[in-house]
């Protein structure tokens, strides 16, 4: 897919750090960024638009602790019907305008029995169960063709975030995230299988963006908000509303954690 023309205001801003805000987490852009400007996705010719409830659908750019950031307030998902090239188009755009560190956040279901809704999980690794890869049939010569994935999520920066969490009494879990296509939630049998594979949490995003970011040599940090127990573990029916409600209940703690991560990057 050809990269659309990036608005001059984003190019001129020269952001250092990119952020992708997951379901129920879009508030961070308004709460913690000293906003310089906003660009709706619909104003960029050839750019996808967010179709999921709770995903505003715009770039927000500004500063956090003096760091220049660009934030996706709403992401794109494979289950929306977008091709992988469209799902990961924002990563290509961020790389083009100078982003070298990417924070990817998501709402996830907890598989690890030590996790409870409202916990945060720092991604140590991931499992791609999407059945495809965003680098298949890649158009363009930028980045490496066969990126090394032995450390997708930057170990040095993860250690700094863990130390911050410990010093501030934040119960930060760490574990492996597994991505499925969605939009249906997982069955109890699938959740048991994912646990056997080593997954601590499951969701419907993050992995495509992380893969493309690593293709470009970006540092990547992933943070999950555990918004529900996965099927078979949860005693109640899973709903998108539950995801949003849990994310909103831990709003200040999540904002503190993500802002700290950005300041440490």
What does this structure look like?
The protein has one domain: Nucleoside phosphorylase domain (Rossmann fold, 3-Layer(aba) Sandwich). Helices cover 30% and strands 25% of the residues. It has nine helices and nine strands. It has helices at 8-13, 27-32, 84-87, 89-96, 155-167, 188-197, 207-215, 240-249, 251-264; strands at 17-21, 34-40, 58-64, 67-73, 101-110, 120-128, 172-179, 201-203, 219-229. A five-stranded mixed barrel has the order 5-8-7-6-9, surrounded by five helices.
Shape verdict: globular
Q: How many individual β-strands?
A: 9
Percent of sequence in beta strands = 25-35%
SSE sequence, one letter per element: HEHEEEHHEEHEHEHEHH
Helical fraction equals 25-40%
Radius of gyration: 17 Å
Largest sheet: 5 strands, mixed, barrel
Distance between the termini: 30 Å
Number of domains: 1
User: What is the residue-averaged pLDDT?
Assistant: 92
The CATH class label is Alpha Beta
Low-confidence stretches: none
Name of the CATH architecture: 3-Layer(aba) Sandwich
The secondary-structure class comes to alpha/beta
H/I helix tally: 9
CATH superfamily: Nucleoside phosphorylase domain
Any descriptors?
265 residues, alpha/beta, Rossmann fold, five-stranded mixed β-barrel
């Amino acid at each position: 897919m050809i990269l659309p023309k990036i608005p001059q205001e984003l190019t001129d801003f020269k952001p250092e750090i990119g952020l992708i805000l997951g379901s129920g987490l879009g508030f961070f852009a308004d709460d913690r960024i000293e906003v310089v400007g906003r660009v709706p996705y619909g104003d960029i010719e050839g750019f996808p638009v967010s179709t999921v409830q709770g995903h505003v659908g715009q770039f927000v750019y500004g500063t956090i602790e003096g760091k220049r950031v660009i934030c996706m307030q709403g992401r794109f998902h494979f289950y929306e019907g977008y091709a992988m090239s469209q799902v990961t188009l924002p990563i290509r755009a961020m790389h083009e305008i100078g982003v070298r560190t990417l924070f990817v956040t998501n709402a996830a279901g907890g598989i690890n029995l030590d996790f409870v809704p409202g916990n945060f999980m720092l991604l140590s690794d991931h499992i791609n169960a999407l059945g495809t890869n965003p680098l298949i049939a890649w158009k363009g010569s930028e980045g490496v063709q066969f990126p090394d994935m032995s450390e997708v999520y930057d170990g040095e920066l993860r250690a700094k975030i863990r130390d911050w969490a410990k010093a501030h009494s934040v119960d930060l879990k760490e574990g492996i995230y597994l991505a499925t296509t969605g939009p249906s939630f997982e069955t109890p049998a699938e959740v048991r299988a994912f646990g056997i594979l080593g997954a601590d949490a499951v969701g419907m995003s993050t992995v495509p963006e992380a893969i493309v970011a690593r293709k470009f040599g970006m540092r990547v940090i992933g943070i999950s908000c555990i918004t529900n127990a996965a099927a078979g573990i949860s005693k109640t029916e899973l709903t998108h509303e539950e995801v949003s409600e849990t994310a909103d209940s831990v709003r200040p703690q999540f904002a503190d954690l993500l802002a700290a991560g950005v300041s440490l990057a």
